[in-house]
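Hey, I was hoping to borrow your eyes for a little while. I've been staring at a protein lately and its backbone has me curious. You're getting the sequence in one-letter code plus the fold written as tokens. Would you mind checking whether the tokens look sensible for this chain? Here's the protein in full, and shout if anything looks odd to you:
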Amino acid sequence: MYRGFLFRYFFLVLLFILTFFTFVVITPVYGATVFWVGGASGTWETDANWSTGVVPSTADDVTIDNSTVTLSGGQTANFTTLNIGSGSTTNLILIGNIGTGMDINIANNAILTAEEQPFMVSEKLII
């Protein structure tokens, strides 16, 4: 009788672990399309400056228009795609680093300034 209890207990624990890994750990993360809503100027690392209410992550597609955005020193910008300036003049000033970033698209009226150090784009830089 005690042996049957241990077997059922072991089975339930194993079932829980498999379910956890299937739905929580292995589930892919899809990013959001995130827009700058911080007004004419502000800092990248301020949550309230983004349409989602949080700083963009590695899975997000980011769009900045009609603003001057500064990534402060010691900070890291993460995104999948960064679109800068499809409207009037847009400035992105990088004092911090790009952590992850695949594509950067710079439109006609946009300026990207890397003040401290060079950055690397792992996929495409379209100007």
